[in-house]
Structures are given as C-alpha cells and as structure tokens.
Write a structure and sequence with these properties.
33 strands; binds MU-OXO-diiron
Length: 634
C-alpha cells in the first residue's frame, strides 16, 4: 500500500478555535466536512494531544476559520507549530472578533467562518471526530480557499537542513516540515519532532557522502564551529532585556569563536555584532547579526517582543558580518519591510537573492515608528559605498554601524561607562586602522556631518555603546581620521634564521637611546598584520627590515608592505634594513615598495652581509634607529 495516495485527498486548511473558562485557543486542522444541510451540520477531526481538543471537549463549542491562498507561513507556524499550553495564541486579539458562541474567529487571511456547537463526538483512537451544529456562518472575503496541496507547493518554505548535523557515516533523518535533523540508526515509531511536533511519517532519511558539507549558513567567510547557539523549544522562554532607553533595546551577540575577522584579522578578544530593537506603534530592528548567531539573536529579539512582529529591518550596511542573517529574519517575519538606501539593495540582492518588500530612503529622509522617528544619513565608504547611519530623533541616538565600532566582545559591560576604556582602546584602534583607516577622509566627513546633530548616544554595530564618554570616542576617531601620529617607533622584521631579528634589536637600541620610550618590535612571521598596522597608525616612526629570499624579500613581509601602500598612513617617517643572505634583494625590494608608496625615508637604508657581527654594521643599524627616532621627535 502506498500511503502517499492519501495526500491526494483534497484537504483544505482551517484554524479551529475554541474557548473554555476564559481561555482562547486554536490550532490548524485539515479535516472539516459538511455532512448535512438540514440541520446544518459539519464534522471536524482533532488530534487528542492538541490543547484545542481538550478545550472543545470541555466547552462543546468551536469555530472554523477558512484560510485563503494569501495566508503567510507565520500564520501556520503561529497556530500549528506551538502549543496553547505554553503560549497565548490570542494575546493581542480583539474581542469584537467573537462569533455568536463567544468563540474567537480569525478575521485576517480567511474568507469565511462557521460558529458551531458540538452535538456528538466519536472516538477514533488518536483523534476525536466532533459532529457539530452550525450556529452561524459568515463570508469574510472572496479570496480562494487554500488547499493542503497549495500550502505544500506555494506557502511552506523548503526546510533548511542543518547538514552540519548529518555526520559522515551516521544515519540521519530530516523533518520535511521544519528541517530538524535526527541522528540515529532508526527513528522510533512514536518519535515527535521537537521543533514542529510532527510525527515519524514527516521524516525522511538523508545521506551525506562527504565529511565537509558546507552548511548554507557558512557562505560568508566566517568560521562556524560545532558549538550550538541557544535555541529554546518553548516560546515562553525569555532573556532579560538590555535597555538603551525605555523602548530601545540592545539585542546584539558576542562572537568569541570566529578566529579571523573577514577571514584574515585575528580576534583574540572576540568581536560583538550589535543590533538594536525599537518598539513603538511599529517595531524596527536596526542591522541584524552574523548568520552563525541567528538562533541566539532571534531568541533575544523575541524575548523583548513577546509575540509582536517586526515591521522594519534597517540595513545600514551590507557587509555579511551584519547582513548574513537577513534571510532568516525575513523568514521569521515575512511581512517585514527592509529599509536601505539607493546603493543598498543591488549588493544585498547579489548576496542573498531578491528582496520582495523593500523601502529605499534618501539622505535626511524620516520614517515614523510612532513616537520614535528614524532619520537616515549617508556615510559612503564608512565602510562600503552604501553605508549609512540611522538617527533616532526622540532619543537622539545615532546607530552608526561600523563607524565608532571596535573589536573585542562585550564582556558584561555594554555601555562605555561600565568598562575600563583602556582595555578597549587597542582593539578599537586596530579595528579603525584595518577597517576604516583606508577611508579616513570619508570617516572625517561623516564625523563632521554628525556634528550637526544633537547626540545622546552612539550605538555602533561592533563594540561598546557610547552614552557617557562621547567626547572621548569622538576625539579618538577624529585623531585617527586626521592621522595625528604619536611619538613612537614601530620596527618590523622578517628573518629566515634570526640575523635580521638581531639587526632589529640594534635598530631598536638606537631609537631608544635617542629618547623614544615607545619602541615596538614585531617579527612579521609571528604577529598578524592587523596588529602591526594598528601600531603603524598610532606611531610616527616605521622601520622595516627584511632579509633576502631568492633575490627578493622575506615572503611574509609582502602582505605588510601591500597593506601600507593600500592604506597609505600619513604623517610617518620610514627607515629600511635587512640581511643579504646569499643573494641580496631584501632591502632592494623594500626600497621598491617605498618608492611605490612614496614613503618618507629619512635615513640611509642598511643592508648587512651575513650576521651583524662587524662593528661598522652595528653602527649603521644603530644610527638608522637613532636617525628615524630624531625625525619622530622633530
Ligand atoms: Fe562590520 Fe563593514 O562590517
């Protein structure tokens, strides 16, 4: 027997509602049938496990609301994927939508309802069939009724299977309704999906042939580890909220598991992806988070909203560390309107596909949420061409996205006055130098543009929220954007066997004895370039040493010289040195980079044969450090 034949029965889909002892509840059913016209009677079959079944048994009344083809998925999820035992499905319902039997009907996405009173019930084991007299019937719209087949083909999203769960060599079963993956040799007969509560018949086996199947989530150059985010099963779970104001909430997440930001910058202290929620007559989410944190993120947002939906998703910036969860957010609230500017949507749709419900805003345009008014200002190239900031006029908060951000997860303190800023300054400058530094002039223009606004708080998409030390962060960003270097020397060397490293120490000695107290020496093979760039941004003196390698320079040095010439830090004085090895070419290659980047070389370059064991070499290296140091001191 092929039980799939039963799916070809022309079922409809309905919301079955009831009320008992002051409790309203409802569920989705597909078995409603008119059985007689005189008297007018229908039957409906209901699973005994449903709370609605329990309430109908007690009350003897119910309504059938007939869903249309325009019904969005969230209606099916609302009534079908959660239990009334743990959720009040009618928490925001209006009382005037009660029928003559005092039971609520569903007025939206429906074309008719029947108000009924049970006359008899028939026990079918797992289900009860209620036979009922129709007390009233009303037509609500002329939209066509949805069938089970239409729902399967056009409304229900294809389940997003978490292939990470399906390990090679293990048998896995995926729920065709919601995508939950069960790992095990056999699925128990009484198995119930922990997410959507469907039974074994809705599962099918999946076979994963390779060890490293990419999850659809993992498409944005960030490493998603085995660690699972929180994803509670019950809707009555909630987290305590973090308020910026009474109705503006922090809903960001910490990432301490991604090893490389943008897949090339180390994150020893992690990073935060900040997002903000404004709850008013309309609800707005400002910038989502990196996709690997979607479960935690949605949990936080829903904890605040308590069943309300999000009306607007503001996209200040398209980069995937913020935008990669957009598909999941839209799936959660299908009617959400995505708000961006004229440059936002082409890249966004290139990343994620067509966005149906979008709103394009212009410079200075406002969007009212009720008491809160959002205003949008373009800050192109801080960090990408479409970058903008959102200013909330009532609270006077600037949601600045990458601008004023920093590396470093938020360790309990969300606001600047809850932490020691000393712990964050290096991570902020490293973020600035490597993310914003290349567009320092545009950053300066953005700061000047925001200078015309009255600002109570700066809420970036990475790092601390600034509500107390605004002058401090504005001062730092202005200093870094103007590239006002501090007194100090950065010495970076690349050495095959250590000789160029010894040279670096001699250079450093010359700089220190010339009175420079902040001398930083880095081995390019040991320190990731973003840290070095951060110090180069800070200090005026830069001395680079590279030994020869096949007639060119120590290979790891190539990335640093590329970054210097790409970011073009200003107000610097440079020096060069290195060992010849058997070929020479290290210093010559550095000199070529210096010429291309128009580095301000203030001392004669030093190239040493072999090791720095001769006094004249020692003197040249020492004097290199001393000369650069004197140029730093002016
Ligand atoms: Fe934090 Fe440019 O993205």
């Amino acid at each position: 027997m092929d039980t799939n034949a039963l799916f070809n029965i022309g079922y409809g889909l309905y919301v079955l509602t009831t009320r008992h002892d002051g409790i309203d509840n409802g569920c989705i059913v597909n078995t409603v049938l008119q059985v007689t016209s005189t008297p007018l009677q229908i039957v409906v079959s209901v699973n005994k496990g449903n709370y609605t079944h329990e309430l109908i048994k007690a009350s003897g009344v119910f309504n059938v609301s007939m869903l249309t083809t325009e019904t969005p998925m969230f209606v099916f999820e609302h009534f079908g994927f959660q239990s009334g035992r743990t959720t009040n499905k009618f928490a925001t319902c209006e009382a005037e939508h009660r029928a003559v039997n005092e039971v609520l009907y569903v007025p939206k996405y429906t074309n008719a309802y029947l108000a009924c009173r049970v006359s008899q019930s028939i026990d079918f084991g797992t289900h009860t069939m209620f036979v009922a007299e129709v007390l009233d019937a009303q037509v609500l719209s002329d939209k066509p009724s949805v069938t089970y087949d239409y729902y399967q083909r056009n409304i229900k999203p294809q389940p997003e299977i978490n292939y990470d769960d399906a390990k090679n060599g293990k048998r896995c079963w995926v729920c065709k309704v919601c995508g939950y993956v069960y790992e095990g040799d056999e699925l128990p007969d009484d198995f119930e999906c922990p997410l959507c509560k469907h039974g074994k018949e809705e599962f099918e086996e999946i076979i994963v042939e390779t060890q490293n199947v990419a999850s659809p989530k993992n498409d944005n150059n960030t490493k998603i580890h085995e660690t699972q985010c929180i994803a509670p099963l019950q809707n009555n779970c909630a987290m305590k909220q973090i308020n910026l104001t009474e109705n503006i909430f922090y809903v960001g997440v910490n990432d301490r598991r991604t090893e490389l930001f943008e897949n090339h910058m180390e994150l020893p202290n992690g990073v935060s992806y900040n997002s903000y929620l404004i709850v008013d007559e309309k609800v707005a989410l400002i910038d989502p988070v990196e996709a690997g944190f979607i479960e935690e993120y949605l949990f936080k947002v829903k904890s605040v909203l308590q069943g309300r939906k999000v009306d607007y998703l503001i996209i200040n910036h398209d980069e995937p560390d913020h935008s990669s969860s957009i598909a999941a957010v839209i799936r959660e609230w299908p009617e959400i309107q995505v708000v961006g500017n004229a440059k936002t949507f082409a890249p966004l749709e290139a990343f994620y596909g067509t966005i149906e419900n979008k709103k394009v805003v212009a410079e200075g345009e406002t969007l009212s949420l009720g008491k809160h008014i959002l205003q949008f200002f373009m800050v192109p190239m801080v960090h990408w061409p479409e970058s903008m900031v959102t200013y909330e006029q009532t609270s006077k908060i600037v949601f600045s996205n990458d601008a004023f951000g920093g590396f470093g997860a938020l360790n309990g303190g969300i606001f600047d006055d809850q932490v020691n800023l000393v712990f964050y300054e290096d991570d902020m400058r490293r973020y600035y130098a490597n993310i914003v530094g290349k567009v320092a002039m545009q950053a300066l223009k953005a700061i000047e543009k925001l200078g015309g606004l009255e600002i109570n708080m700066i809420a970036p998409s990475h790092g601390l929220v600034w509500r107390t030390n605004l002058a401090w962060v504005l001062g730092k960003y202005t200093q870094w954007s103007k590239q006002e270097s501090e007194e100090g020397v950065v010495i970076v060397y690349g050495s095959l066997h250590g000789n160029t490293g010894v040279m670096a120490d001699i250079v450093a000695r010359g700089a220190a004895e010339a009175g420079i107290k902040e001398v930083k020496v880095y081995d390019i093979a040991k320190t990731e370039v973003s840290f070095i760039m951060s110090d180069i941004w800070k200090y005026k003196g830069v001395i680079i040493g590279a030994c020869a390698h096949y007639g060119s320079m120590f290979p790891n040095m190539t990335l640093l010289t590329h970054e210097i010439n790409e970011f073009k830090p200003k107000d610097k004085v440079y020096g060069l040195f290195g060992g010849m090895s058997w070929s020479g070419g290290g210093v010559k290659t550095l000199a070529k980079c210096a010429e291309e980047g128009k580095w301000n070389l203030v001392a004669e370059s030093v190239e040493v044969k072999g090791a720095p064991i001769r006094e004249e070499d020692w003197d040249k290296l020492y004097n290199l450090g001393k000369t650069v140091a004197e140029a730093v001191k002016g």
